[in-house]
Specification:
Length: 248
């Protein structure tokens, strides 16, 4: 089963948005932050035996990105002079991701736009609204999370400092491996239970990269929200660059 949440595409660059928004009413959804790197897995990752040079280049690129992320985290922590200073809290990201993941998909299946509007950024919310509105009136969804196959794994952390005092955007990417099912149910009339549509409801293993976002606005941190899901980085998109990130 493919991801229920749409894989969001990067939107306008933040620089363009800021130029168009000199008044400071910046939206929550700025797209996937530049430089987000998700190490490919399986066959997408260059083999250490058949492609050792490419694999080494990719590992070096990942190491450099992790160093940049640490530096970004330090900048975020000391962005405001107010105390107590914000904490990275990356150890708590896993439980937060699990809770938001379950809440988001349950609300989507139930058509609960009110809940979705409190936990999703603008782009993802608009997509969910459109999909909910397009459902047949006599049909509903039942989403079941049977279990988490692995503990959520933190794979990326990016920070964008905004040109407003004490303001920034954080995004973390968490790999979610679950066993879940999505059943389409059709109404059979008053007093009769809904019936599952044949061919739906099969349990399947699903791997998703959930993107969570948090904004600090004028030194006040807002709650984590779901930006959407994304994909592993294509090695071709980074191996054409040297270790400073510049084109060869």
């Amino acid at each position: 089963m493919s991801s229920i949440a749409p894989r969001e595409k990067p939107q306008k660059s933040m620089q363009v948005m800021l130029k168009q928004d000199p008044g400071g009413s910046l939206p929550m959804d700025l797209g996937l932050l530049e430089g987000t790197f998700i190490m490919p897995t399986g066959r997408r990752k260059p083999s250490i035996f058949s492609e050792p040079r490419r694999r080494w280049q990719l590992e070096l690129y990942r190491a450099r990105q992790r160093f940049i992320e640490l530096r970004m985290g330090w900048s975020y922590k000391y962005l405001t002079k107010q105390k107590p200073r914000p904490k990275m809290g990356l150890r708590r990201v896993g439980p937060t991701a699990q809770a938001l993941y379950r809440q988001m998909y349950t609300a989507f299946a139930d058509g609960d736009i009110t809940t979705l509007s409190t936990i999703c950024t603008e782009g993802l919310l608009a997509s969910f609204k459109s999909r909910i509105a397009s459902r047949p009136r006599n049909e509903r969804l039942r989403w079941t999370l049977h279990k988490f196959l692995r503990a959520p794994k933190f794979v990326s952390h990016r920070v964008a400092i905004l040109p407003y005092k004490g303001s920034a955007i954080r995004q973390v990417v968490v790999r979610m491996r679950t066993r879940q099912s999505l059943t389409r149910m059709v109404s059979r009339g008053p007093g009769r239970p809904d019936a599952p549509i044949q061919g739906t409801g099969e349990e399947k293993a699903v791997t998703e990269y959930l993107v969570l976002q948090r904004r600090m606005w004028k030194s006040v941190e807002e709650p984590w929200m779901v930006w959407g899901t994304t994909e592993e980085t294509d090695p071709k998109s980074v191996l054409g660059k040297d270790l400073t990130g510049r084109d060869n």
